[in-house]
User: Fold this.
Amino acid sequence: MLEDLLGYTFKNKSLLEKALTHSSYANEKGKGRQSSNERLEFLGDSVLGFFVAEHLFKNNKNLPEGDMTRLRAELVCEQSLVKVANKLNLGDYLRLGKGEEQGGGRKRASILADAVEAVLAAIYLDGGKKNAQKFVLDHLLTLMDEEHNFPDHKTALQELVQKKGGESPTYKLAGESGPDHQKVFYSEVWIKGNLAGKGSGRSKKEAEQAAAGAAIRSLSE
Assistant:
């Protein structure tokens, strides 16, 4: 049962149901986007950012602002949220329209990441700050403990290329999608005129970090 995986039992079950409802399902049922999880995702994004920032501030007293900013960006990025979604098997519980279902929506990174934020907002509204904070600590901030810290992929790629005597990587914005409050950016990194990696994120910087990470994995194979 999903609530067992979440570690929280809802008093208002309709909040959880809404958090799992993609706009494609709401539109297909003629209910409109207001019945989807988009508004919850908007709130969850802010709630998540606050709890992560608070945790980093209180528990890393010697960490400079720049490092805290980088860690927060890594923790709230799409890739981290997808890890949480997969851990919770969240894709299995999503309500999707037929087209999105057939198009592989249950595994689509942007849909999974948005659903995690929507579920967080639902917990926040249903159970208050303490329960929402526990969800973030249990399911997201454990990633930081498991991985110790998040590497600066762009710097690591630069160092890797220099060791091999290559040219510095070049980053290009490949596109963007989504409304302003949940924009997704797509980035490419090129080395010696060759496409080395692609990535996406909630900001251009996140997308570049993701692309650099993909390039490192490709070059290491």
Strands lie at 170-177, 184-191, 194-201. The chain has a mean pLDDT of 87. The longest strand covers residues 170-177.
